[in-house]
Amino acid sequence: MGTLTADVPRLTEHCDHKLPTSCRLTSTPLCCACADERQHTSTYRVYIDGIGFVHRGTRWQNYCWFCREFWEARVAASGLTVSQTQIPDRPDQRAFLDRWFEFYQGYRIVRTEDGREERIAVVGEPLRDVDPGHLPRTLDELRSGRVATEQEAEPALEGAQPDSEVPQPSLDQTLDALLDEMETEEAQSYVSTSETAPTIPVPPHSQKNQERAATLEVRRARRPQVSLPNFAARVFGTREDILSDGYISPLTTMFTRPPQRSPQTEAQRRE
């Protein structure tokens, strides 16, 4: 992706993150994080297909692509959890920004023992080849093939643990928990609705249908119960009849009777 603002001049009205993030906001000198005036909370709303809006998102999820990548990388490098962050103040990025601007301007200023200021050249990987949220590699790191050594700020919260030590729920576990909450809410709303629902009088035609159904039940109870074996024996014959040599299935007679009846019917028609 690279840094798109590597050759953009730094203006006095720019915020400290404007160039390092390659922010795409053109109508303001502030980056997405500095222009965000929302109140800080531990969770933010995000839309999940099939569930709706839930508080499982991050503050920077709707920033421009470059700002979002910048803060994803910086939060991951800081070791803070999403709920512990307060973008852009926490995690503290002053050390990272100072180092980044040294690569941007090509030098850093040091003070000698006698109070004089000297410029020391800072040469490394071109910024246009470095993704937002990462520092360029120095010449020594480029020669050795090492990853850039970044100066990370200490976690702002006391006792803050890295993400690797804090168990984080997976996406499947989060979706299951959300679905369970939805089912619980639906069940509670159904119970409350059924308890408060008024009694609806039964219309006259419904009463007639109920009386008719009761009459049919009485008639059905009075009928002789014919079991399936008895019904089969009455239609196809008993087991002994079926095993006999002269047995003719009633299904066979369905096809033999019409030819026999045809001459009789024709004779009656002629008479």
Mean pLDDT: 76
What's the arrangement of strands in the largest beta sheet? 1-2
What is the chain-wise order of helices and strands? HHEEHHEEHHHHHH
Query: Given the structure, what is the number of helices?
Result: 10
Low-confidence stretches: 151-164
Shape: elongated
* Number of strand segments: 4
Percent strand equals 5-15%
Number of domains: 2
N-to-C CA distance: 102 Å
Biggest beta sheet attributes: 2 strands, antiparallel
In angstroms, what is the radius of gyration? Answer: 42 Å
Helix content: 40-55%
Query: Structural class, judged by helices and strands?
Result: mainly alpha
What would your notes on this structure say?
The chain is mainly α and 271 residues long. Helix content is 44%, strand content 8%. It has ten helices and four strands, in the order H-H-E-E-H-H-E-E-H-H-H-H-H-H. A two-stranded antiparallel sheet has the order 1-2. Strands 3-4 form a two-stranded antiparallel sheet. The relative contact order is 0.09.
